[in-house]
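Homework help board

Subject: predicted structure for assignment chain

Our instructor gave us this sequence and asked us to write out the predicted structure in token form, then describe one feature. I got the tokens but I'm not sure how to describe them. Can anyone check?
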Amino acid sequence: MTAEAYKMGRQIKHRGPDSDGVWGDETSGLAFSHQRLAIMDLSPLGHQPMVSSCERFVICYNGEVYNAGDLRQQLPRERQNVRGHSDTEIILECFAEWSVEKTVPKMIGMFAFSLWDRKEKVLWLVRDRLGIKPLYWSLSSNNTFLFGSEITSLEVHRDFDEEVNFSSVSGFMRFNYVPGPDTIFENVYKLMPGCMLRIGQTDSDPEISAYWSVSGVYENGLANPFSGTDAGALIKLEELITDSVERRMISDVPLGAFLSGGVDSSCVSAVMQKLSGRSVKTFSIGFTEEGYNEAVFAKSVASHLGTDHTEFYVSEQDLLSVVPKIPSMFDEPFSDSSQIPTYIVSGLARSNVTVALSGDGGDELFAGYDRYGYAESIRGRINKVPYPLRKMISCAAQMLSEDRWDQISQGLPTSRLPKNFGHKVHKFSRLLTMGQDDLYCSLISHWETDGIIPHAGRKDTVDRAYGNVSDLIKDPTTRMQMIDLVNYLPGDILTKVDRVSMAVGLEARVPLLDHRIVEFAAALPANMKIRDGQSKWLLKQLLYKYVPRHMVDRPKMGFGVPIGRWIRGPLKEWAEDLLSPEMFTRHALLAPGPILKKWEEHKEGKANWEYLLWDVLMLHAWAEGRSK
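My token output:
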């Protein structure tokens, strides 16, 4: 049993290259396996799996609890005499003193852990509030309960069920990640953020409960809104971010920060530099392609702050060597193309530090995405037209196929028409009759999956995108933020950062996603997030205290890459192979017709289908990796 657990652990050695360990209880039929990335207490006293001093609890834990020192002070004196100074040891003593249910809500940090209660014969799985760290579980057809940080480790167990979930394929093609709690496999699930799972030795099914939720936080923010002044809000935000960053700078290994030159990463880097007694190490990457290079902005901010800055410009050869590796870093299909620069900058940082702070979360908390304003604009225009008329126009538009609309467009002045005209007519026609949430989810969707998933009818994966969003919250922009916090943030952004950083043995910390900042942002009035057309208004006021406005007041770029040009150029041969008829036949995941049509249009420059094609490329690359 422990030998099999050890084999599962070695599958994710990249997540913890410093040491490994196993623990087993043959009587209970349970085994833990751990791979350690040593951050706090580098000595053997931080080794895992770890047993509590009373020997009741055994933990296997990934992450960091940043208020472990505070929790230790709250324990009775006899429990404060821990052997080392790792947070793992302290939270074990907290479980022994207060119970799991009472301890977890006190914890500030990112964490995913399994905990065995040897007295009660109960296994706990717990994931942090925002989903920064991953945790998967499965109850196999042989009634074996498996769990781990990546599906990759589960797959090597003899009882793992390998059946692909085609509804998840549909969800992936729509959102470019598989929406939780499902995974790409049947009977394998993500433990959702803010949840704990409990299963006893004699239980047939696990019990899952939420100890924290985005909806609950926003409902509380609605009931208890921030009522102070702008100045008061700014003071409070600075206090929260300063405390959050300071806690995440505690480390026994070198640390630094990702710096893109945007608002979020600049804010984190500025506060780090304020708190540090020496120049903070910051890292950015650049591209030679116009419109994609943020390195010049990052360098300017770094120079002003006085950080020890390192930048790296990505060459075509770097690209060719990196892209084929990317799919293997994800345990299920994943196609946010910013995975490429995030991996490269993680590798750059890892050559200098073991921990890096990132600015992720600012857009979701402070309404920074351009699409929020775009969705509001569309909604405003659509609602001016009576619904019966909208319904009539929608039905009429969809009577003609996308191809027919393209043919009609050829006889019109091309300067007045967008590319992919037929596709956009159909998409707009659907928007005409949609409600608020459906409209937003349609805007953030990639493929409309009717007709391209051969083994499953279309399942309404849109429901997953807002099923956990409170109906009490009526403000459209706030609802969009919540949809992203519940789904896009853990499913895309945090998955991307975790997988590519851990692939190089780097721990990424996200101070803006401290749950206390989330709760504060949820209570802010809308005009402290968007004011006079300026998004992230309050966060920008804080940044202006550290960096001149002209350095950061510019259109939002995101962390994009010119993937459309790359797959026409240096990656064309790689793409042709993954989009070959043989590939569609071999994996039987997608119907080739509509996809190959888009590929031809893309190659010929008739349309830009880069994001939709990247979904297919990543799905087939993932499937190819599993078949070898």
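Reply (TA_rk): Your tokens look well-formed. For the description, you could write something like this. The chain has a mean pLDDT of 91. That's the kind of observation they're looking for.
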